[in-house]
Protein 1
Amino acid sequence: MSTSTIHDIGYRHYDGRRNGRAYVLRSLFVHNLRAAYGLGRPARAKVMPFLLAAIMLLPAAGSVAVFAVTKQEDALMRYSSYAPLLQVIIAIFLATQAPVLASRELRFHVVPLYFSRPVGHLDFVLAKVVAMTTALFALMAVPVTVLYVGGLVTKVPDSADQLGRYLGALVGCVLFALVLGAIGMVVAAFTPRRGFGVAAVIAVYMLSSTFVLIVQGIAEEQTDFTLSGWVGLLAPFNLVDAVQVRLLGAEKSSVQVAPGVAGGAIALALCAVIVLGAVAVLYRRFRKAGLS
């Protein structure tokens, strides 16, 4: 005879509301966006992102102050040139924060825990990429907005033209954020150690920029400005600048940009390829980590 006993411990199935995929995506996005700026983490995690954000704001505030005193329109920095001029600060932000979003779960081997719940691999990747893109966009768009608002308050002439340039610059900020975020996340995802991730992202930025500058210098010595413009597409900041110049009507910030509307269209297509390729690579990377 069996002496086993079944006890009623009051277990009930969950009958509450199920928030669904959109809620999961939003929660992952907010969590990663907060992590990009160190929110919800120790104070030392907030120092670098907020320090870099403050440095990004300083030139805009100084430019507005100079314009308010001199009333010379040239004193205001060009909206479309703000990100290329401060690309070193943006690259440092990307290098320090991309590993936080891309490699922290890999480093502590907790990716399978995410996928033990109804979280899709693609949703997980998209939430991270969009969060990194949003963090970079905020880093660049806020100073540009300060320039625009400051110019309006201090009575910049031809406000309608300024609005067009400002909106074009915001589109450029979106492209910068998408391309840089995609590249940074992919590099960081393959270097689980944060220190190596920071060094790897900086190395990719410096090597691509240095290579392009060297080749452009040689091409211009040979008066081959067309080649110089096409080579610029190999560097992320030059790539997006080509889109701004050829498709959005901005003034160039790079040494040379790809010629004609075709150059802008090819640059935009390359931006799309980089972003979609990065999502595909990250999907495979996290899917593999989720199975291990």
Protein 2
Amino acid sequence: MEVQRYARAYILQLLGGTLFADKSNNLVHITYLQFLEDFEAAGKYSWGSATLTHLYRQLCLAVDIDGAEIAGPVILLQLWAWDMLPFLAPIMGNVLRNDIIQNEDLFLPPPFGHRWRHALETT
């Protein structure tokens, strides 16, 4: 029971602090508590779609005439910009963009942001 409590706290921080962050960056909306009540049901939700929807909504609010800040998972926007607009991206040096993570006998494509893990290192 204690492990589940810590897991819920960690996931709540992940939801409110990273995926669905607000401009205060220190508050978590109480709405997300209901999604952590049942772990099996939470695993069936489309968190990626919800995260992108939240980011798109925050982008719409940021370009409003009165908008001065942006909230949400801005790291996703940054990774997209680096990939789609290479002149904005840091120089990658000798790192291959299509690295493959090797997991025993299974080859998995890396996460989207994985290709930039060494981007700011100097060679």
Protein 3
Amino acid sequence: MNTVQELTVRPLPGLPMFAVGQPIAQAICRALADTGDSLRDGDICVIAQKIVSKVEGRTVDLASLEPGEQAQALARRTGRDPGMAQAILDESAEIMRPHPAAIIARHRTGHVLANAGIDASNVAGGDEGTVLLWPVDPDASARRLRADLVRVSGARVGVVIADSMGRAWRIGTVGTAIGCAGLVVLEDRRGQGVDLYGRTLQATVIAVADSIAAMASLAMGEGDEGTPVAIVRGASRWVCGDDGAGAVSGLRPVEQDMFR
């Protein structure tokens, strides 16, 4: 029987408005130090995708794109700006469901979400056509951030890069892990545990990284809170000594997709 452990999530105030090339790990450690705290072994840093993308220079001016025929057709079908349609196509491996409400796409990384993760909220120039793309490789970004945090703090930590994503069968968005390092992404309990009546678990696979992302995103907020980082404590049982398999290991293989 597993012992229930207290989980806490702490949004981190005092972070700057991040720009291209600005070191995120140093800013996190400095902001923690300003509160009289520091990273500890087993901490998990949940970092909003937007600041990672900003630091990596993933902004695009839609006016700079030249929409092709496919983008023009997609724009007509969905009522989107042709430049936005082209940006979505550029970031996608597959357009799964074009709709005026959202263009559901399989991102190059394998994640399925609206508009290939492209967003203008909390982006300078968003009203004038500047949008933000996901990191080129969110798992690689998480690995770099983890290495920087370990180097600066000396603590054994996990990193989750989180973005808000919808779900096909539910209303609303939930914080989801799109990049991960140093953390168990899935805890497979099948055949490993029992329920209250002693029955062996047959289908239980816990989405650890997504659950932590969701909890932290609630605390971080989605608007003008200005807290794009949260520290999760009490989850050290899932923090591993190496980088781990990354968030992509939690994606359902295409051949097992039950919603196609």
